[in-house]
Design goal:
The structure holds two protein chains of two kinds. By secondary structure, chain A is an alpha+beta fold. Chain A is built from two helices and five strands, in the order βαββαββ. Chain B is globular, with a radius of gyration of 20 Å. The chains are: A alpha+beta, B alpha/beta. Chain A binds chain B through residues 25, 28-32, 41-44, 47, 88, 90-96, and chain B through 3, 6-12, 15, 20-23, 26, 28, 33-37, 39-41, 290, 293-294, 297-298.
């Protein structure tokens, strides 16, 4: 299933910037960055549980927020892209 | 059901693959081309001058992602393997069966029957799609002859006899094969199967597709814990994935031959995309190779109904399903091996 993950991490303090880096790093392990704080992750339900747990442990719930949007298996017709920063399709033909 | 994981094809010369967290990072001339999580991939296939960091090799081994290297023209060079995985009892069962004349013959027969049945379907489909094409009599004759061979094979299990019949069926099939090429006749024709090196465009195309298929089948076998080297129809030979070649036989007509014909007949590949070397060997140019890889990937996502399991799966999962059925047969959970039959 495709999960869209967005986050806001408070970066006023050095600890906040560290949390931001860690959230981004973890998301990158599971999906692709489509915009600055937005990730598209193609994961199995079990993998998602692991990822969610990891992210929850990183953030400070008083200051930061996480949002998950579930786009399911038929995600392709629910996504439209306009403009720069072309992404790849993890289910499509991967050729470099 | 297992999910069909994607394959990453690296064809850019000078590309460098490295590990970045849990992702595969592909760089070409110091520019990041792709960064993809390893869990989205089932295998990575590299063509030509592509290098990899030891860490990405380790990650692939650990996550059971097969990583293989081919020359630019698709000749297999090496594969990276993690620790020996799978079940030792299953492998032992496979070796015992391979040593037993009776089961060797039975299994080889199942595989060959599957291959002939699927070859027949390819011929019959051609007749259905192009009624009244040139060589109708030849194709019809081949269909009948193949049916007769299948009939002959009902009761006999001797391995040498099976090998003989396989050769006969292949000859009949390939004799009719040229008539299945309906477009670009002056550039694509089929007289006989030539390999190492392929000597004409059609043979070059077939050889390339067969290499891709061998890779997929060998990975599928390793995935269920079987040894791809110990074959039944194919005799053991160092460095030859005998069991992968066995299992490939029944899948060739559907996943490779049919696809090659479609690519030519729909003019997705052109004669000028093939280059003849001084030695007579024919190779494809980069654009054509890319087109073929793309078509192969799309083909693998086609949905079919597996006759034995009665379940809808993508064509790309068929090697995995057949490997699983083979493992069940070796373990004794199935009385015979059910080859894959295209409807």
């Amino acid at each position: 299933m495709m999960v869209l993950i967005t986050y806001d991490v408070n970066t006023v303090t050095a600890a906040g910037r560290k949390r931001l880096r860690n959230v981004a790093k973890q998301c990158e392990n599971y999906g692709q960055r489509v915009q600055n704080s937005v990730f598209e992750c193609l994961v199995e339900p079990a993998q998602f549980v692991v990822l969610k747990n990891q992210l929850e442990n990183i953030i400070d719930k008083e200051l930061d927020s996480l949002r998950f949007y579930f786009l399911g298996a038929n995600w392709k017709r629910r996504v439209e892209h306009i403009g720069a920063k072309i992404s790849y399709d993890p289910e499509g033909f991967l050729n470099v | 059901m297992k999910r069909l994981l994607n394959t990453l094809y690296v064809t850019s010369q000078g590309a460098y693959l490295s590990k970045e967290g849990d992702t595969v990072h592909v760089k070409v001339e110091n520019e990041t081309k792709l960064r993809i999580p390893i869990h989205n991939l089932g295998s990575i296939v590299c063509f030509g001058q592509v290098s990899c960091s030891p860490f990405i090799m380790g990650l692939c081994g650990e996550r059971n992602v097969s990583l293989a290297f081919f020359t630019e023209n698709g000749r297999f060079m090496a594969r990276v393997e993690g620790p020996v995985s799978g079940n030792v009892l299953l492998r032992r069962a496979q070796y015992r069966k391979a040593d037993d004349q009776q089961t060797t013959g039975e299994l080889a027969r199942s595989i060959v029957v599957g291959k002939i049945a699927n070859s027949r379907i390819v011929l019959m489909r051609a007749l259905r799609d192009y009624p009244g094409c040139a060589g109708v009599e030849v194709i019809e004759g081949a269909i009948k002859k193949l049916a007769r061979i299948m009939e002959d094979m009902k009761h006999i299990y001797s391995i040498d006899w099976v090998r003989g019949k396989e050769g006969e069926a292949a000859r009949i099939y390939f004799e009719a094969f040229d008539y299945l090429i309906t477009g670009q006749k002056d550039e694509f024709y089929f007289k006989e199967r030539t390999r190492r090196p392929p000597l004409d465009n059609m043979n070059a195309l077939l050889s390339f597709l067969y290499t891709l298929l061998t890779h997929d089948v060998a990975s599928a076998l390793e995935g269920v814990g079987l040894d791809p080297a110990v074959g039944f129809l194919h005799r053991d030979r160092p460095g030859r994935p005998g069991l992968a070649l066995d299992l490939m036989e029944e899948l060739r007509p559907i996943l490779a031959d049919r696809l090659a014909l479609t690519l030519v007949n729909r003019r997705q590949v052109k004669g000028k995309g093939f280059i003849k070397r001084e030695t007579g060997a024919v190779v494809m140019d980069d654009a054509t190779r890319k087109e073929v890889l793309n078509a192969y990937q799309i083909r693998k996502r086609d949905e079919i109904t597996h006759a034995f399991l009665d379940e809808k799966i993508s064509l790309g999962l068929v090697p995995h399903v057949q490997a699983m059925l083979l493992a069940r047969y070796f373990r004794g959970d199935l009385d015979g091996y059910p080859p894959f039959r295209w409807r």
